[in-house]
Write a structure and sequence with these properties.
- The structure is a single chain.
- By secondary structure, the protein is α/β, with parallel strands linked by helices.
- The protein contains six helices and nine strands, in the order βαβββαβαβαβαββα.
- The strands form three sheets. Strands 2-1-6-5-7 form a five-stranded parallel β-sheet.
- A hairpin with a 7-residue loop joins β3 and β4.
């Protein structure tokens, strides 16, 4: 998979890809992540990529020209499955979306900034709009990092245990069950005996029951999906 991220603040996005799972995925050549500074595609001598909005109103708007030039330049090199715009009014990111995107080959992510982008960008270039929650950030960079993490960890070979991602919360519209590790007894706090039974069908049944109970208590809305 290749992910190209268009941003006015590339320095904000470097560190998430320089540690842990994402770093290993890149070093193992399971994914390529390329950052593109939108200011490199503007003809403005001051490298400006935003302007006042027509009709008046507070906040600057990202101009269509540099975005068009950047996306077009990338598209001359390869075909993209999705061009994603990170925006608060997009579809809220969930596990299903992450699963879908993990199967793609080439993705462009456009990070919104200022008041947002010229609507013509959204109407003519963007194939999918994604939000990471019902709140507003200073820009789409942190949202892009969250999206990349959620997607890249699903690529086969990225996680040490291939089945780990399949048992995450939300994969079956259920929250993950409780998990435990050593010590078995910590100051009188015990681990459930079923986990030491060696009866793996019963352990799996217990985990399914616990996952359902936890979902019913914390996120009953998921059971209606």
């Amino acid at each position: 998979m290749r992910i190209d991220i268009i941003t006015v603040l590339p320095e904000l996005l470097k560190s998430p890809f320089e540690a842990s799972i994402l770093k290993r995925a890149i070093e193992s050549e399971l994914v390529e992540v390329h950052l593109h500074n939108l200011r490199d595609y503007t003809t403005d001598k001051y490298k400006s990529v935003d302007d006042y909005q027509f009709g008046g109103g507070a906040g600057m708007v990202m101009m269509i020209e540099p975005i068009d030039k950047c996306i077009t330049a990338l598209q001359t090199e390869r075909q993209y499955d999705e061009i994603i715009y990170m925006t608060p009014d997009g579809k809220t990111l969930n596990q299903g979306i992450a699963n879908q995107l993990s199967l793609k080959e080439n993705i462009i992510i456009l990070c919104g900034h200022y008041k947002g982008v010229d609507q013509r960008v959204r109407d003519n270039f963007i194939t999918r709009e994604i939000s990471i929650g019902d709140y507003v950030l200073s820009g789409g960079e942190l949202g892009a990092a969250v999206l990349c993490d959620a997607v890249i960890r699903l690529i086969p070979g990225v996680l040490g245990n291939e089945t780990s991602a399949l048992t995450d919360s939300f994969q079956d519209n259920l929250l993950a069950p409780p998990i435990y590790t050593r010590p078995r007894d910590y100051n009188g706090l015990q681990v459930p005996e079923i986990l030491f039974s060696g009866n793996f069908p019963e352990i799996e049944k217990w985990r399914e029951e616990q996952a359902y109970k936890r979902t019913q208590t914390r996120r009953p809305d998921l059971l209606d999906l």
